[in-house]
Amino acid sequence: MNFFLETLIGGLLAGTLYSLVAIGFVLIYKASGVFNFAQGAMLLFAALTFVSLHEQGLPFALALALTVLVMIVGALLIERLVLRPLVNRSQITLFMATLGLSFIIEGLAQGLMGAQVRALDLGIEDVPLFVGELMISQFDLVASGVSALLVAVLALLFNKTRIGVALRAVADDTRAALSLGINLNRIWQIVWAVAGMVGLVAGLLWGARQGVQFSLSLVVLKALPVLIIGGFTSIGGAIVGGLIVGAAENLAEAYIGPLIGGGITPWFAYFLALIFLYIRPAGLFGDRAIERV
């Protein structure tokens, strides 16, 4: 029983890291209806910027503050140079724009900061903690706490502020929001900046876990099943989807893996997402499409 609980808890805690990546997608999708393929590149760029500044001898807090500034400026440039000229274009056009943007960001990161793998030490040791008879990873516990704090801040921002009300209005009906005087460009700037901050947090945690390297941008691929399961339009759904994926992966690897020779972790989340597409295409908390004929 202890092994089952340790495996389950470890999977749930690891799933919060998947949720962090998925939240960045949800924010932009809610505001513009666009699947932002550049989120992984933003995550990588944020982590590389921080570790490069820190390696130059800057204190942790100053390097973090400058990275935040870089991500905000980057978000404003993306909105002005990429999104604004493509207003009222089809979703596939905007998706292709973010796809191209991801390669531009990765190329810019490589040109400015190099392609070598960097170690990132956040001062969080990945050592086991014992809660009764259960063994829990200290890193996963801290990462889940940071994720919970970030989600709480986002919930307050989007549910208790005028910016949040404007964002929900844009997400519900863009034309109606524009008719009420809501500045769509300003909303996009804010959302991309917040998505950049989420990418920074996710990049630091993932970079500390597996090193800051260009394969870090591929973390976005694991966010896809999280979004399919939780729903593309719900921050809460991203959290729940991440927990489901993390727990299911751990349990499947522990109990099904030995029966078929292992190697379940890379594909099991996609198998789970495929099942959800059959039984609940909009995800657990996503908005169902309603067509009137």
From TrEMBL:
Subcellular location(s) of the protein: Cell inner membrane
Query: What species does this protein belong to?
Result: Pseudomonas alloputida
Q: Does the keyword Membrane apply?
A: yes
Record family assignment: Belongs to the binding-protein-dependent transport system permease family. LivHM subfamily.
Which CDD domains does its entry note? TM_PBP1_LivH_like
Query: Which controlled-vocabulary keywords does the entry list?
Result: Amino-acid transport, Cell membrane, Membrane, Transmembrane, Transmembrane helix, Transport
* Topological type in the membrane: Multi-pass membrane protein
**GO terms for biological process, alphabetical:** amino acid transport
GO MF terms listed in the record are: transmembrane transporter activity
Q: Which residues cross the membrane?
A: 12-29, 34-54, 60-82, 94-115, 135-158, 187-206, 226-248, 255-279
- Signal peptide (residue range): none
Q: Which GO terms describe its cellular component?
A: plasma membrane
Recorded protein name is Branched-chain amino acid ABC transporter permease
A Pfam family reported for this protein in Swiss-Prot or TrEMBL: BPD_transp_2
Q: Would the keyword Ubl conjugation turn up in this protein's UniProt record?
A: no
Q: Please name the InterPro entries in this protein's record.
A: ABC_transp_permease (IPR001851), BCAA_transport_permease (IPR052157)
